[in-house]
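I am still learning, so can you show me any protein sequence you like together with the matching structure tokens, please?
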Amino acid sequence: MASIHRPPQRDTIFVLSVGAVLALITILPYLLGAALSSPDLRFSGFLIGQEDGYSYLCDMLQGYQGHWLFHLRYTSEPHDGGLFFLFYILLGKLARLSGLSLILTFHVSRAILIPIGLYAFYRLACCLSPSRQVHRLAVLLFAFGAGLGWLWAVLGLPTTLGDMPVDLWVPDASYFLSSFTYPHLVLGQALLFGFIVFTLRYLDEGNTGDALGAMLTGLGASLIHPYKVPVIGVPLAAYGLWRVWASRWSLARLALRLAIVCAPSAIYVIYTWRVFQTNPAFAEWQAQNLLYSPSIWLYILGLGVPFLLAIVGLWGARMFPACQAQGSTTYHPFLVVWFLVIPPLLYLPHPIQRRFMDGYQAAIVILAAGALCALRERLPVRRWRTIVLAVLTVTIPLSNLLLFAGAISTAATPREPVYRPAWEIDAANWFWRDATVPVVLSSYATGNMLPAHSPVRSFLGHGSQTMNRAHKSHLVDEFFATAQTNSWRESLLREYGIGYVYHGPREKALGGFAPAQATHLNLAYDNGTVQIYGVR
């Protein structure tokens, strides 16, 4: 039932063409930003999610320097490295070999991976539905579809993270948003879809090649994010148990085959668990990386019309002859299980609740495409058919159009923090002359940017990767405050092994501290706007 036909060449061309269009759309605002960059005000390379974007450039920089193990450079505490963010470490090595800048390598990889990820989704659609009509429509919905976030924005409702529909801020819920932001999200979904396809084939047919394919894609997906295979493993196990009950599958055979395909991923997950249990820096990182689900209504609004269509498609699967194969059900049973199992998991008492959305859009749009195919066949009046489909065509991608317009507007208005002043970049590049990877004390915003441009460790600079973030934020405020004593500052610098104090406009705005008058600080760099002081 899960066998995959060889797709017609014209369908492959169609899918890759749609992927190329999506890649072009998502890269246009960044090209505009690069074009408007000037010697005095330089485009950062990020329009959405700057804080995490800088952290990924920091990861690439570690690979650029020749490292294989990942270290948290947004915290001052020394710690052992771990085998994490391997994708970005490899990108950094590629940047060094190619001579391209880190940010250019980042966006080139994103543009290349977008059509690949869309093609992986297409192969999944071929596995889960026999209708070629559904495949093509699902590709369009997956690439450009969104929910009702646009309506939320038009009504002027809150637009802060966590308080708006998920299609506007959760990349796991939107391939368009994933494509617009980070390349690892696109690659992770591509590998996840490959894992599903190979696993379903192996469970149904027992082919050794499919087992190997599932093991490799599962391990690749886990290296992107360790949670991926455990998350998708829940609906896969539920599907297998349903087959045991409905088709008299052998429970032992099911357990063995799932164990085989998940074995490499399980080894990496165990390694990850062990590191996070024994490494205090990584343990703190995990404790601060909270991904709780928002209100259920924000999910429903964020998934929008495609989700409602998916419910219709699921409810009336046997009523849609246009999308059926040989008179049987429209969809592979796993699709139905996947669609039904995920919503309850979004509110399990676990800090990575939102991660269960990873790839879930695929299940939604395949079912929605089936419903649209049926709707097109069943509407009796051609005029009404045209009106309904036209309305859906206009409204379904509106949130993505809003994101695109916002990105264009942001890129077209050169100002901080999307654009960074030249004096700030020059000051950051000065740290390359210190080969020790020193700890730098600065404001939060400066500390977020510095490790993306130079081999330093920030005392404070990232929401989850800075150990004891809240306490350090208070210490930074105290350090630059006029009222604090120099003896207290000297003790703080010594306690945390800080090598430099960065003193720019953001730090000066925190208080009236004059580092030039401190006997324990020595001026090491001055470009007129930023002064960097070495700690004696």
About this structure: The longest helix spans residues 9-36.
